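The instructor's notes for this session suggest beginning with a concrete chain rather than abstract definitions. Hand out the sequence below and ask the class to guess, before any prediction is shown, which regions might be ordered.
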Amino acid sequence: MTAGQPRPLQTYQELVNRLYQQSNYDFVGVALQAPVSPHLTRWLFVAGNQNERFRRIVLRRGIGIAGLVLRTGAPFWHNDILALDLSDRLYSPIARAENLQAVVAVPINDGPLHTVSGVLLAGYRSGHHRVCEADADKLSQSLA
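After discussion, reveal the predicted structure:
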């Protein structure tokens, strides 16, 4: 694969499976923006899911952790995501659906302009695990 080209979709599922199996994350997922209008962003590839509710979630730019990563193109993490409620701009539907306490998300940059086309998110269900910048760095490196 040449730099700047989008990854084949199968590669994303392999990435999610590898991160889930080789780390201690309880959940790993990739949300991608559809290439055609209305360019909806959905969770397409997951590992460690407890149910199928993730399939109904549509991400909006700037809303929730994944939406913030889509809008800013910067990594983000939070260690008490379930404490946020629906009125908070960082409220995260995927965290609610999967009962995640601590999550870290990084942008997926593809295409010739390296635009943000998706989000790689990993998280823990237990409050005993914490996420930090080092987790974001590791996730970003896994996309290289």
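Then share the key points. Residues 23 and 40 are 29 Å apart (CA to CA). The longest strand covers residues 115-124.
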